[in-house]
Design brief:
Blueprint lengths: L1 H27 L6 E8 L7 E7 L24 E3 L11 E2 L5 H4 L4 E3 H4 L5 E4 L3 E6 L8 H7 L1 E7 L5 E4 L3 E2 L11 E4 L2 E2 L1
Parallel strand pairs: 1-11, 3-6
Antiparallel strand pairs: 1-7, 2-5, 2-8, 3-4, 6-7, 8-9, 8-10, 11-12
Length: 191
């Protein structure tokens, strides 16, 4: 009888550990195909429809798109659409950005994450938050991207993709554990 009780306890304990491990894995993003950077913002310039990250330009940037590759190659394309239904434009079409918009040509040593890096697939904008979504390099942490660039800025943009304002640069603090970086911007400051 003692063996059956011990076995039952072991089974219950194992089931509890598996449940909590699954919850933890899902919370870390292991249960999803989408990886993202969340950017919360306030005190934005009037007319702000969405925000984007600006990363420093690097020679031989490993995330720079390669237009010479096949269209189906993940390194070929950039994110040109911002899904921002909340701004009351009267239709559900995304904000479409092209190579001539202000964000595409903006360059003060920092350039657009959406339009100058291949890994962003979608920008979902809410009234005070944007999520840059992608599936590489990892769906469990965004530390690799932030630490690769070491600094970033946040660009406030209107519906036409014109840059209305930019925050001061923020230095990324290195952490030695698995983590998700989240960005908060207020006026010309970000963290």
């Amino acid at each position: 009888m003692k063996k059956h009780i011990k076995a039952a306890i072991a089974v219950v304990f194992t089931a509890i550990i598996c449940i909590f491990g699954g919850i933890n894995a899902f919370a870390m993003g292991l249960g999803t195909d989408i990886w993202e950077i969340d950017i919360e913002y306030e005190n934005a310039p009037e007319g702000t429809a969405f925000v984007d990250l600006l990363f420093p330009k690097k020679t031989d940037d490993k995330y720079y798109p390669d237009p010479t590759t096949n269209e189906n190659d993940e390194k070929h394309s950039v994110c040109r659409n911002v899904y921002a239904d909340y701004i009351g434009r009267g239709n559900s079409d995304p904000i479409a950005l092209d190579d001539s918009c202000g964000l595409a040509v903006y360059d003060d040593g920092y350039t657009s994450c959406m339009l100058k890096r291949y890994f962003v697939k979608y920008n979902h904008a809410e009234k005070d938050k944007c999520s840059l979504e992608f599936s590489v390099p990892s769906n469990t942490e965004n530390r690799e991207v932030f630490e690769y660039y070491g600094r970033f800025k946040v660009a406030y943009c209107n519906e036409k993709g014109e840059v209305l304002g930019v925050t001061e640069p923020v230095k990324v603090k290195h952490v030695s554990t698995t983590c998700l970086y989240k960005v908060k911007a207020s006026g010309n400051k970000a963290e």
